[in-house]
Amino acid sequence: MRLLESKKGLSLFAFEHSEEYQQAQHKFLLAVESMEPNNIVVLLQTSPYHVDSLLQLSDACRFQEDQEMARDLVERALYSMECAFHPLFSLTSGACRLDYRRPENRSFYLALYKQMSFLEKRGCPRTAHRNLSQLPNFAFSVPLAYFLLSQQTDLPEHEQSSAREKASLLIQQALTMFPGVLLPLLEYCSMRPDATVSTHRFFGPNAEISQPPALSQLVSLYLGRSHFLWKEPATMSWLEENVHRVLQAVDAGDPAVEACEHRRKVLYQRAPRNIHRHVILSEIKEAVAALPPDVTTQSVMGFDPLPPADTVYSYVRPERKGGERDSVIWGSQLLACICSPSPTSIGSVSFLTFLYFVFQIKSHQPWKHDRALLSVTVAKLYHGGGETRGRSGWGSEPQPGPQQADAGCARHDGQLPPQ
């Protein structure tokens, strides 16, 4: 990583690829184009800390439901980039910037997103948005939090009453602003609304159909992640009570209803590209189905989904050479032979040879792991299955020391700096 410039109290940084890392990156792109995951495994033999390869292999492990190995690979990618940090770069200062338009920086953003996704699954969510009141997830989550607070028996009675009143007021505002959330939410929770609600023009099927596609994407993201929070009977009863209050306001001609309808049409005409990218990474099928055709018809690469139109390239990819492509394909065929499930003696000897390569990868690691980098994945390729082993003590690894921090100024070459 290097410091590009500092002005107005802000410092602009960028990850920088060495010539060796650029060669590894070119091989990675060839491996991706070959549509053969084994080519990425071959690449990791020589560059065990190539970030994009680690992230791509993490996705492959996740698709095979090996969440532990997928999480480890993402953490290794983050560790690799952390070792390349500039001494002045800080994630907590609020004054450091990484331009997403630079391809070298995007891997860091992608790794952080994947790490946050894993933390979310482990029950460690955190909130970070701007204009929160204009997002359906925040509009519904805050009143739900106040309602759950009002259910705490250890609170004084007046605090419980105050929290419940505030929760009811906020949920009515959320339902008025985003009426298309109600029926999908009830469907997620396996609940059927009464006829008064389901046939009303405000909450009926037309509410979901008439809302802008950009808003539908945000609603699908929220419901796909948080619908289980609404399944409690007490929560549903409170929601039903406030739904009927909103219907009374709608039938009475409350001007807030028309104002919210106008805001929906103005604010959610089209989602920006970064929201589309977030939807693709979320893999929530309802949200992905709501993407516009100009997004769904283009090819999307997992290591760089929907790159910005104004990408800033620091180096260009050379033209492909036949020999280079053949070497990648040959490596894939070799690995396929190594991991062949054939019970012949040749396959068995080849598999032992591959285990030697795994130990070679392990020798590159700056700490001692309980298992090799690709052991579980290899076991699945060879045996056609396998169970997940114990998790290595990731939290106990040493942090980068002063020597590593100094080495961080150098360009990333896919290998970790010396200890």
From TrEMBL:
<feature type="region of interest" description="Disordered">
    <location>
        <begin position="387"/>
        <end position="419"/>
    </location>
</feature>
<dbReference type="InterPro" id="IPR006994">
    <property type="entry name" value="TCF25/Rqc1"/>
</dbReference>
<feature type="compositionally biased region" description="Basic and acidic residues">
    <location>
        <begin position="409"/>
        <end position="419"/>
    </location>
</feature>
<dbReference type="GO" id="GO:1990112">
    <property type="term" value="C:RQC complex"/>
</dbReference>
<protein>
    <submittedName>
        <fullName>Transcription factor 25</fullName>
    </submittedName>
</protein>
<dbReference type="Pfam" id="PF04910">
    <property type="entry name" value="Tcf25"/>
</dbReference>
